[in-house]
Amino acid sequence: MSFEWKGVFPALLTPFTANEEIDLPMFEKNLQAQLDAGVHGVIIGGSLGEASTITAEEKEQLIKHAIKYLNGKIPVIMNIAESTTKDAVQQAANAKAWGAAGLMLLPPMRYKSDDRETVEYFKTIAKSTDLPIMIYNNPVDYKIDVTLDMFEELIEYSNITAVKESTRDVTNVTRLINRFGGRLKILCGVDTLAVEELCLGADGWVAGLVCAFPKETVTIFNLVKEGKIAEAAAIYRWFMPLLELDIHPKLVQYIKLAATQTGIGSEYVRGPRLTLQGSERDRILKIINDGIAARPVL
């Protein structure tokens, strides 16, 4: 299906049962909550989806199940996070065969490629598929910065059409627009900078806490795009302690606990991650429950 890189795209959690199997009923429950809130697409197999622990077979299961459940209402995007170019090309082919509408593409995993290697990696994948690609630029977590000069080379490929902007430098939104105009759609990839980047012209939001609070996330996006900044800011201020759960190494455990508390997820994770316990769990649970208690009326 054709779509635009605009709006709210949840980076979906991968729900597990207590014995670490995929929990499809819970997956459907969260998908329905996202649909009901009005999100514009979903991303499967990203960092929040525990990409490093799910198998190719499980990714296929999740992609196909989501496509069947959503029935064309919104696009299903597949994340690619591989260590080798060959494997990434294969994943792009798999995504096409399984019916995904587009790709979110990380730089090579494990090896810190230089600029030339990173560009060649992205180019090789882009020319292997006709699916639209969003480059995930997150030098904070993945140690590789996709610079403006690198994007200048990458946009030779017409299917490289968007960037998930996670540099944590909001001025990069302006630099991208100044350099490329509307050639690349820009989606904020850091929950705690979403309103700032949307106000500066970002087209969308690849969101994390949306997995637990979909309606609030979509409402903020819609209000900003309608120019109702004060109304958006009021919800954003309430949301901020929760959004900060997205910028911690344990974001998966924290956001899964939040989704459990809002009834659209479970806190089970797959090893080596462990569910939270003790004072850490109590501290995160208090942040979540305080947020739920003060949840704004939309």
Automatic annotation (TrEMBL):
Entries under Pfam families matching the protein: DHDPS
Gene Ontology cellular component list: cytosol
GO molecular function list: N-acetylneuraminate lyase activity
Keywords: Lyase
One GO BP annotation of this record: N-acetylneuraminate catabolic process
InterPro entries, alphabetized: Aldolase_TIM, DapA-like
Residues that, per the record, bind pyruvate: V206
Recorded superkingdom: Bacteria
Catalytic residues in the record: Y136, K164
Family: Belongs to the DapA family.
The protein's name: Dihydrodipicolinate synthase family protein
UniProt source species: Lacibacter luteus
